[in-house]
């Protein structure tokens, strides 16, 4: 026995001394498994390595090592894994997951107890690097613990980034607008449209919680050692359908680097009282600071002192030219098929171009791929339905939404003779198909059509349509690179049918069509840099106007303005650069190139003289697709966010933009009688530069959001017109158009309350918008060449949107709007010349129409909250314009028996009650 013990001791000593930590190791590994690499190190070093097989059954290693120590070899092999190692003194190495094994506890780890009392004195321990958990650290055992990242022995960093995606467990679809919070802290974020989130969290142990409407709440215990990812798959929670939540995008307004960005969730605006009970996301957008309309019932939006044609309105990536029904009284965007809308009115990402003022990026909902679902609404003049139909379970589905009005039937049943022969109808249809091939490839395609027909007078019938199509293919190339290919086509058609008692009946209209291809890429270079880059090309085809006789007896002669064609191309790149924990930059550049193309005749006028038929000297003819004129230039996009406090940030931005397509109108609103014009030899592209600076603050765990932002914008080549200009069906439109300078500035205030029984927002804008038309010739000068208020200049704009939840089922809502009256030009006298009497007008836009204000109220009734029932209902009882305010839409003048008389026109001068029934299944 003694001999055996002696031999064992000698063998042990030999084994220990045979292990030499400084022994050099050389390895050539080519796509070797992690386990193979560890065993080869074990063989060469003589050390015994202990590990769990399930930790090393993934991953491959390719590297070359020459004469390195055991420690160096292990560090290289385990570099891109969550594994660490600890070397024992007996020639053994233990492989650990995530954490590091330490030889001793830090001083102060155990609390000191005073022997004369029960008071415990605790010493604060650096809980970041290394990470220790004291003996009094207790936790709930029913919460899953997740280990994130690999503990860094070098130490030095205290804050790490946790990111990932959240998807529906059953359908596999990404879950957007899901709140992800760290319990006991003010750390939180929200998932974007692709379900992606990112959080900055101190190293250590934390409880991560999810909160959303319609999905289960999940809790995870994090053991955070380093940067890492955590993907979540959540089940739907139908018990939450009765909740009314306005908690959207917590912290996003403070955290992101995009200044002047607004996000609207369509579902959350259903309580806001609007005209005839229609849920209208575009009208809700107009209640936000910096966004206004020219008047009640007006189509088009003025954003930060810009014209209505300076907004890029996208529906699933395709341009929609007229997002309004019946001259703007109703929106052409179906709320039941729409998901979210993001408005960029300050910093415009480099991906977007072609407009000066803003981008309205509207995305429709993806169809439910698990089960059949739908939503129906019935109102006093419209009906709306949307159906979601699975095609391939958990892979593809189709959503079909349609809306129509039965106002024609109402008009014909009225006793008023002047209205019996009137017509007012509209409809729109959206069809979207989404297909997910696998976790990396998905395709979405959308088709949309809207049609309006109305005739308020007995002799004219107006008709216009929007038609668009988009196809988007998304591909995740790898963990760092994703790409998206977008093909789209949009068209807008307008016609007037004039039928009178005389032989001058006609049909007249115009057309615009554009086709675009975009390739957008994203590269996640590192935690500090995220690159977006891409290329796009767009082909415009514009038919400016035509007229044809209506009927065989009409004396009207056919006439057509030659077609215009233009090609707009662009390339862009931007970088979201996280300089440090406080400073975040988003810097990019977009270079756009435009070419005006033939086939067309280009007239040449005498140089130095005003453009008119009298100064026409020559005509140049360009063949099909021949380049007539080119314009190009860089567009700088920059925005920055700096944390003053954890919940207070300052943002600054600068944008430069180009616009190559223009709307021509001598009206104050975008009516369908407008026409479109492409840049050419005489009409240069519009250009603008905008600067903005703002403060963003959240209070009481994001229950309150406060923002204060100011901006200053200068613009060039803004289109206007000469006095008495004839714009429609004018073959020489360049002789009537003026281009001048613009200047606008303003201050925007927004206070939101996102939670609680009382929620909503208060918005206020002070803004000014001026134009200067100062040419070389007298007819090109307006108001003596000085700056004057634009048609849409409204200094004061106040909006209050409030919802009060009495119970889970019953709530009240209110909407109040006040705006300064817009500018107008008044006649100030008359004079006689050569026996003729003429009216003398004031300087352009010298006066203003009366101020506008309106109060709307509604009572909302949710259906009962039983889970097992066919449909969930919702009633909306509202009164539009409760005060019966006769708000003037416009002021016009007529001459009656030699006397000039002023008249005001209004759209809704009395209270308009409405009851609407919705149900969702």
From TrEMBL:
Q: Give the record's GO CC terms.
A: cell outer membrane
Which membrane topology describes this protein?
Answer: Multi-pass membrane protein
Question: Which residues are in the Secretin/TonB short N-terminal domain?
Answer: 48-98
Record-linked SMART domains: STN (SM00965)
One of the Pfam families matching this protein, by short name: Plug
InterPro entries cross-referenced by the UniProt entry: Beta-barrel_TonB_sf, CarboxyPept-like_regulatory, Plug_dom, Plug_dom_sf, Secretin/TonB_short_N, TonB-dep_rcpt-like
Q: Where does this protein have coiled-coil stretches?
A: none
Which UniProt keywords are given for this protein, alphabetically ordered?
Answer: Cell outer membrane, Ion transport, Iron, Iron transport, Membrane, Receptor, Signal, TonB box, Transmembrane, Transmembrane beta strand, Transport
Q: Where is the signal peptide?
A: 1-18
* Locations listed in the record: Cell outer membrane
Q: One biological process GO term for this chain? A: iron ion transport
- PANTHER family linked to this entry: FERRICHROME IRON RECEPTOR-RELATED, TONB-DEPENDENT OUTER MEMBRANE RECEPTOR
This protein is called: TonB-dependent Receptor Plug Domain
Question: What organism is the protein native to?
Answer: Salinimicrobium sediminis
Q: What is the lineage of its organism?
A: Bacteria, Pseudomonadati, Bacteroidota, Flavobacteriia, Flavobacteriales
